[in-house]
Design brief:
This protein is an alpha+beta fold. The protein has two domains: 1-37, no CATH class; 42-138, Roll (Endonuclease I-creI). The chain is built from seven helices and four strands, in the order ααααββαββαα. It has a four-stranded antiparallel beta sheet with strand order 1-2-4-3. It starts with a helix and ends with a helix.
Length: 140
């Protein structure tokens, strides 16, 4: 956020390019503060989450009917923790390798919340088709 604010103040492409490699310098400090304190969910979270699903989410239909929704992210564990907090998810975020984190949801109550969210804050890309197929199978 500080990098963005400085970009707006400086209003210089030269400043941007010379400082771009430093924009994540404080990331660890920010992430650590999220681990200590409960996250404050921003007002735009619902809209952001729909976009995040488009990029990183996956609706999985399984033959054994153990359908799920998962979402993964490199490095930014705090994003998955914000999603957990927002939806009241009890599942643990898995760290399968290096800096990749994955949140998988099987619980019907939470899947219903995510479906409801996606219907109220619609997906606009290929994930909308994926969601519709998921709902069709999940509801039967």
């Amino acid at each position: 956020m500080l990098f963005l604010k400085n970009c707006l103040i400086k209003n210089s492409i030269d400043w941007y390019f010379s400082n771009r490699p430093l924009k994540y310098n404080n990331q660890i400090t920010i992430i650590k503060s999220f681990e200590i304190n409960e996250l404050i969910i921003p007002s735009y979270f619902k809209f952001w989450f729909s976009g995040f699903i488009e990029a990183e989410g996956c609706f999985s239909i399984r033959k054994n009917k153990n359908h799920s929704f998962s979402i993964g992210q490199n490095s930014d564990l705090y994003l998955l923790n914000a999603i957990k907090q927002f939806f009241g998810i009890s599942s643990k975020v898995r760290n399968s390798h290096k800096d990749f984190y994955l949140l998988e949801i099987y619980k019907k109550e939470i899947l219903d919340k995510i479906i409801s969210h996606c219907l109220n804050f619609p997906l606009l890309g290929d994930k909308a088709t994926s969601l519709n197929k998921f709902i069709e199978v999940y509801k039967n």
